[in-house]
Here is the input.
Amino acid sequence: MKRTDLRNVAIIAHVDHGKTTLVDGLLRQSGAFRANEQVAERVMDSNELERERGITILSKNTGIIYKGVRINIVDTPGHADFSGEVERIMTMVDGCLLVVDAAEGPMAQTKFVLRKAMEAGLKPVVVINKIDRPDRRIAEVEDEILDLFIELGADDDQLEYPVIYASARDGVATYSLDEEGKDLRPIFDTILEHIPCPEGDPDAPLQAMVTSLDYDEYVGRVAIARIRQGTVKAGQQVAVAKLDGSVVRFRAAQLFGFQGLKRVPLEEASVGDIIAMTGLEDVNIGETITDPENPQPLPPIKVDEPTMQMTFRTNDSPFAGREGKYVTSRHLRARLFKELERNVALRVEETDSPDAFIVSGRGELHLSILIETMRREGYELAVSKPKVIFRKDENGNRLEPLEQLIIDLPEEYMGTVMEALGTRKAEMTNMVNHGNGNVRLEFIIPARGLIGFRSEFLTMTRGYGIMHHVFYDYGPYRGDIPTRTRGSLVASEAGVATQYALYQLQDRGTLFIEPGTEVYVGMVVGESNRGQDIDVNVCKTKHLTNIRAAGSDEKLLLDPPRLLTLEEALEQIDDDELVEVTPKSIRLRKQYLDPLIRARVAKGKEINAEVLQRLKQGR
Here is the structure.
């Protein structure tokens, strides 16, 4: 049976190409809001971190009614690090709107999301957005989109995609550039005409794949699923086919559909409906809600494996427990394993130490968003430098993850950037000169080579460069890549940093702290100008005497310190350093705070409990 009164569509694109802004326009013009209702910009980005950073992190559902047809829309993230969110929603929809910037054209993530959509058999509709940009190049972008479809092996049916030209910010769309758009009606009509209707047997045993989880403090866990076949009613007995093969019975307490930004109660849902269901206390993403008498599980969601990992450990610095609410390994373990329930691209492994856990994800941003979320919830922890995950081929050769890197920058900085990428083992695959003073460079680079590169790249291009990268494939190990060339300034005394001490030290490197900052032994307070670490005393005060010196009345002028964000701190640290993360502070520190232990480790000598005891006793 076909549900002609329903369409399910995902909006996919590269980061900043206008997905969430387009959803805003569709919601406004569908009548989802009252005429006098105050609606925020990018209304689907409801998460606090999403609003701060201007990016989408989590996939979200909404629903609108147009010409009597319910259109369920799923907004997806554009960053490659959150591609697990894109992969899991592909089973919820029957078609997709591929949004492409009229000036930038298809980018790294455009290729990734389109490949996933085609693997899932989705029907694409291309929306060329931002046609009001003065530097638009629509004809070239259309050719690039066609080339991308052909490169990804599209069949004849997929190549017959409709193209719509839009300005999501202005809320207009048109079938042809010769006609001026008045509203977004062309997009609504194209969805009804080209996106397939959901098909399935409403009388067959129930099958619904859980693709997302939410939590409500009143009703508990909420499972969001798309019904493949069968019908379900509120209060009905259902079963959950678990990933381990077991089947557990539950009662579907309540059913909800999506209408605008609200969830509306439903008495019954059938084939193709995207629903939220309560009453399923022990359900996870990828499991199937099915008929208890005739359970028929669906194939689990396939998600690409992580490529980067970090060690999360309890905070054992002298300042531990001052600012955080959750500081023990028990709290840390519970929070990480809870994250696994909804973050399908994440992996958590326990180690020999009960205080440390190896957390694997898609990239630095994926892991740093988790750390930032945890610190805002009141957690204290320390994290190590990100490391890539290596593999072995069938012959035992070492393989490493490679990334496709796309860079847009002014021509004058091209040589400097190419030289820096050469030392990081990057291989150029394409170069396009747009003729307006900007150049696009494409590289295949080891994921190791990108760690710490973003801040260096922005410095080299004076902030004019834009870089994006997406996972490419695993390839042969490319040899050693030089890491940080400068050492750290490490505090040798505990206390409060003084202006006098920092003034004396600022010629030795770049400082990360201000006067009045409390420090402890082993805390990293700056970056050295030299290649090795330097122990410094930032708490030294001026010796007061009754003799007046010639320079005693000079004003001490300090250079502004470099205050690091979480991402900058993760890029800055070396292998023997950690980032201490608390709800109020981000500090850099040495893994071993004691300078005697650090000296022993640097010489390659063994560190065990007996040695630690002797060092504490001063022997």
Q: What stands out?
A: DSSP finds 16 helices and 35 strands in the chain. Residues 218 and 467 are 43 Å apart (CA to CA). The radius of gyration is 28 Å.
